[in-house]
TrEMBL record:
Listed name of the protein: Transcription elongation factor GreB
One Pfam family matching this protein: GreA_GreB_N
PROSITE patterns: GREAB_1
Protein biosynthesis in keyword set: yes
Family annotation (InterPro entries): GreA/GreB_C_sf (IPR036953), TF_GreA/GreB_CS (IPR018151), Tscrpt_elong_fac_GreA/B (IPR028624), Tscrpt_elong_fac_GreA/B_C (IPR001437), Tscrpt_elong_fac_GreA/B_fam (IPR023459), Tscrpt_elong_fac_GreA/B_N (IPR022691), Tscrpt_elong_fac_GreA/B_N_sf (IPR036805), Tscrpt_elong_fac_GreB (IPR006358)
Organism annotation: Shewanella decolorationis S12
Domain Transcription elongation factor GreA/GreB C-terminal: 81-155
Chain's role: Necessary for efficient RNA polymerase transcription elongation past template-encoded arresting sites. The arresting sites in DNA have the property of trapping a certain fraction of elongating RNA polymerases that pass through, resulting in locked ternary complexes. Cleavage of the nascent transcript by cleavage factors such as GreA or GreB allows the resumption of elongation from the new 3'terminus. GreB releases sequences of up to 9 nucleotides in length.
GO molecular function list: translation elongation factor activity
Highest taxon of the lineage: Bacteria
Family the entry assigns: Belongs to the GreA/GreB family. GreB subfamily.
Record-annotated membrane-spanning stretches: none
Gene: greB
Amino acid sequence: MKAHLITRQGWMTLDKELKYLWKEYRPQITLKVQEAAAQGDRSENADYTYNKRLLRQIDSRVRYLVKRLEELKIVDYSPQQEGKIYFGAWFELENEAGERVRYRIVGKDELDTKLGYITIDSPMARALIGKQVDDEVVVQTPSGPKEWYINNIRYTPFETPLEGEPE
């Protein structure tokens, strides 16, 4: 079963997108459709056809966001989580070769590999839930098991990037 969890920041991002689409972008496109329709023959009017298609895409995304926001459960930080990896945690791992990586566990709607966000449903997140600093974790990957050591856990972003990470 997939988790319907999201951080407060993630929920606010989706809500902001929904409000923008519904209150700003959709009315702009609707006006363009009306203006193009007023020009007469719609069958060969590229502006009309393009904007009608865009309107359908906006409506589809709005329907998805409304439904999705209703079923998501916001998970806020709780002091009982301190020192262990749970939903919303940022953490640093190191393997035997000394390679270090940083990730954050989020819901599927927030997934962004460039930011180091992994979903709660990923094998790594599942293996790490409830673990603490200095624990050794084995993560099953398609290329076989990988061993990681937990160096750091926090519930606020890391201030400085690792070497080679984007700032």
